Here is the input.
Amino acid sequence: MSSPADSILPFDGRSVCLFCGSSESADERYLKAARDFGTATAQAGWRLVYGGGGVGLMGASARAAHAHGGRVLGIMPGFLRSRERLFDDVETLVVTSMHERKQIMYDQSDAFVVAPGGIGTLEEAIELLSWKRLDLHAKPIVFLNIDGFWDSFFAMMQHNVAEGMTPAWFLEAWQVCDTVEAAMVAITAPGGPDLKYDHR
Here is the structure.
């Protein structure tokens, strides 16, 4: 039985998934970081996997990667086509649901970068971390913490640890980078902490 992913064009290199905001009201600092990240992935020969939209940080990163000759794969559920406006200049797969979108993005990626974004970006990051907690994957997760955008999330996780809900060693399940350059180093560095997270 075929799946939508079967139609994705072959790619022999490495792929990084960027989770980020689609808001057109995003601060220019975050839009610049998204553009810089798209450019950096293209220059490093990585394929950029993203949510398929042409707006906000999503559109900024995809356009920059494409403009610099990089491969880009967008995954978007059909019901969001009018809201997030497909960026048709790159390979884009339209799927039926958010769950299918996230699964394909995960399957097609070797590493994940979480840039500034809203509730959707936060939900995607939480699910990735939850899967890592359950030993369902060991792929790198990097938060692109432009001007401390994610600091309140890290504080919440520290609170979660302090309250005994999450073991302290799980705070090593992700990396934090303040610049695009550092994030690219983090996803290209060989290996990483050899941790097993599901220690219940």
